[in-house]
Prior knowledge:
Blueprint: H1 6-20, E1 23-31, E2 38-48, E3 51-60, E4 64-70, H2 71-84, E5 86-93, E6 96-101, E7 109-114, H3 140-143, H4 158-175, E8 187-191, H5 197-209, E9 215-220, H6 223-235, E10 241-245, E11 258-265, H7 268-278, E12 283-289, H8 302-305, H9 311-332, E13 335-341, E14 352-358, H10 369-378, H11 385-389
Parallel strand pairs: 8-9, 8-11, 9-10, 11-12
Antiparallel strand pairs: 1-2, 1-5, 2-3, 3-4, 5-6, 6-7, 12-14, 13-14
Amino acid sequence: MAGLPAIDRLLDLLRTAIQDGTLVKLTLGGPCGADKTLRSVFVRPVLLRVGPCLSFLFRHLTRDITQNLPAEEAVRRVELLLEASFRHAHLFTTTQSAQLELRQGHAPRLRLGPSRHAAPAQTGHDHAKARAIQPQSSPWLQALGVTTPQGAVCDSMAAKYRQINKFAEILSHWVAQLPPAGDQGRRLLDMGCGKGYLTFTAYDLLVRQSSAPPQVLGIEARPDLVSLCNRVAQACGCQGLRFQQNRIVEADTTAVDILLALHACDTATDDALAQGIKGGANLILVAPCCHKELRPQLQPPPALADALRHGILRERQAEFVTDALRAALLEWAGYDTKVFEFIASEHTAKNLMIAAVKRTGQQTRQGPDRQVRALAAFYGIRSQRLAKALGFQLVL
Length: 396
């Protein structure tokens, strides 16, 4: 390789570093091209759904542009940039460094030196903590306003980004408990999906975890949000992801595999649970919100009557009873159920999640109905939305 021209030698070093996983970064500077706003380019390895790529950050005077390219295409882009736009390049690997100088009137010169890096570059955005959902491999984050064009998380969306990754962690855990998806792929419904942050998260995760492409549908009543999410899904190449304007109670749950309802308000959570049960969903995940239905019905036992005259305590007790009844009804309907904290309470007060996995084989039989009725009777509850949808009589 010593006899090759300097640019060819640098490109060969770049190819070798990509192939053996030792590439840390490549920087291009000394702009001299037709685009007077382009100041420099930074290149580093990233791992995307399609496989290893190189991420290019084109730094202009007033904006930055990021582009991800497969290895061979990336090397060719570097070659073109060196031929027409920049006077020098600096390559860093874990084994050596190489500096290319292209001065007008002088022969190109390549100087080799020792490595300053003991390990390859991280392939994700957040180096402090590995995140399931990364800006470089999830362009919908920028389209939905979570990250900037440079891949940084917007200050106002930091809590939302944490919620997205916490949800990805939770969903990954529960999906791993399910039987294999088969050739048809997983079919996921997100009821009351809003702006679609967690719908896109679920799609992103299922694409990476499933051998067959998933079919993900977000159900939302507001047409402007449906249109926005469909545009983002199409622009980001999310095949198999779409959004539909509809009411939860009217959604088609035929052959649903996973059903989500995250922060569906009040009895909308019950409607989603009923739809998931009737559709035979293998996994149901809900994060309830706005518990209003049962509060007027509460008739606490004498020991609690004085305590529950305080409005805030009565409100919290109504939340507890509502979700406890939901969990008990899911158990009765043939699901193993767990109630846990979704995300820390400092990020959102609506932080409870109910996960229900459908029992299989001999475990499919319904649970005892007396437990549900005993809980309802203890608080004087005579009617509840999910029980009614399932045809369960709380009072005989």
